[in-house]
Design a protein that fits this description.
two-stranded antiparallel ribbon, two-stranded antiparallel sheet, 318 residues, 4 strands, mainly alpha, A middle domain of Talin 1, globular, 83% helix, 13 helices
Amino acid sequence: MVFVNILGGLFLLFLGGESLVRGAVKIAQKFNISKLIIGITVVAYGTSSPELLITLQATMKDLNEIALGNVLGSNIANILLVLGISSILCPIKVDQELVKFDLTYMLIASFVLFGFVMTGNISRIEAVIFLAILGIYTLSTINRHKQNKNKDVMREQVSEIEEQFGFIKITDKTAMVMVAFGVLMLTIGGNILVEGASELARLFNVSEAAIAVTIVAIGGSAPELATSIIAAYRKHSDIAIGNVVGSNIFNILGVLGLSSLVSPIITRSTLALFDIWVVLFATLLLFTFVKKKMLITRFNGIVFLFFYVLYIMWQFIS
């Protein structure tokens, strides 16, 4: 039964995340909101909705290892797994602006998270700091992209979604139903997955942290994985990295910010001894690869996947 719960929860999270983002894009377009704003908010942050629901529900149930492990594992999976597979399918060209601004913000957010994790808990004060940084990042991103008259990744993310779902005629009413359905599926799926993960940890006598950073995190990263792989297959590789970077920033600043505002998250576990270091390693590895050639090559993708396999093996061997 526990495996049925986990598989069912993963499926509902994927279904809910996709439905929410697609419906929200259509509604935003109805109100003539620019593709830029839709890309920055609905798409980049909307793909993190599974992580948000999982972490919120785990926090409210005092399952701190699942709450924090979900975010750490998701950020690791986004870089090593999602970008690994995407760059093997199609080398990813990286815009210089993304390196100077977004990747730098992701690096800063990761180091701030590292500092907070090492204090032993993420308090409500630290939650407010996270959310303040997210607000500054969002406003800065909007202003920066408004001035960009050339090729713009945020607008292209929305165009990519329009292309992928061009064969479906979505009316305004259907879009509203999709958003409501997405929220419902995310809520139910998150609850089922959190319960299943906790039960699985007890059943096999492994830590909740190990389940969170692997099975739960991969489930939360499913929308990013689907969006990035399809984008890479269509040779729209810049969308793949834009999606991952935006999601990782929101996972740290938005997901942990909102969740720890509801209830402080205790961080005294193996997550503070090992997994947070892997987050920093993966982020710095991505930054190094990109900074050198402004490109994530197929070889880089193989390196990413190699380290991800090692990471997963370590979780269960240890």
